[in-house]
Amino acid sequence: xxxxxxxxxxxxxxxxxxxxxxxxxxxxxxxxxxxxxxxxxxxxxxxxxxxxxxxxxxxxxxxxxxxxxxxxxxxxxxxxxxxxxxxxxxxxxxxxxxxxxxxxxxxxxxxxxxxxxxxxxxxxxxxxxxxxxxxxxxxxxxxxxxxxxxxxxxxxxxxxxxxxxxxxxxxxxxxxxxxxxxxxxxxxxxxxxxxxxxxxxxxxxxxxxxxxxxxxxxxxxxxxxxxxxxxxxxxxxxxxxxxxxxxxxxxxxxxxxxxxxxxxxxxxxxxxxxxxxxxxxxxxxxxxxxxxxxxxxxxxxxxxxxxxxxxxxxxxxxxxxxxxxxxxxxxxxxxxxxxxxxxxxxxxxxxxxxxxxxxxxxxxxxxxxxxxxxxxxxxxxxxxxxxxxxxxxxxxxxx
Length: 399
Description:
The protein is α+β, with helices and mostly antiparallel strands.
């Protein structure tokens, strides 16, 4: 019980620090955190949640560093500046890649990671990143593979020709790594939806040409690139955070959406968001995601948008169960399986979805497990069945 209350303090302090009018409240929460004398837990948990750098940034910005023990201040500063250096190294590597792609006239869109850190977060060091996600056109994937090979990268999870045969609604990416430069990994996508759990219920409704047509120029890693327009950025991050292997399990997924909304709040066309959400048939995912973001942060989400989405939806018991867990701070990885499952209406469709979840194409399982070139046997499916059935039991226990 004590751990749960401590986790709630982390949620509250971030919500207060990121709201300009709640600094005094943040002081009280930090004093309460300090009173528990359990800073090891708080630091470890904030690292897991992906918000430790954000926490330190606001401690300094709001002149609150004297509220934490000196040794904790030193540790937070070390982590923060270590991440700054790491992100600068990544930016340098990505600049080379961006220049090569541009020289070959290969269009690309930079997603998440460094795009969020440079364009939306208050500091380059305030957001960590594990890889760089880049969207290209499917017809250009082989050319991109050649460019990356010239730079010393190789796909680590699958062969290009195999991955390009993946059915719609499953994995639509390749993970490139460089032996002498372990960071950053380059994650090449040809569709924004990328999952080993079938997402055919909505993936084929996403108009890729629309994403490309409305993409905007930006400066990232000191290079001229394209990023999603703010409206598509919000929609994409909502879908991404609700993937079953995420399920809003980390606060960083909430704050990614928060910063896009609050940084561009006066430039976001909420009517366009409503239109694009309807066009892509993503009303359910966007409504649930924004409900969670509104609950945990002071994000300036349009009330009209939420009303329109709520009116257009008939939330089922699976949606309500998932949302209940989220609003109780039980952000469990795998819990959005409830949402995916509920999106399939009727027993027949639910059974088909469950079957396709348990038994995806063989190559999907191999690619997801980074078993490039491995021989497939029935053991892969047994492991998949075990993994899939463990998630519902874990979620239902909390419900």
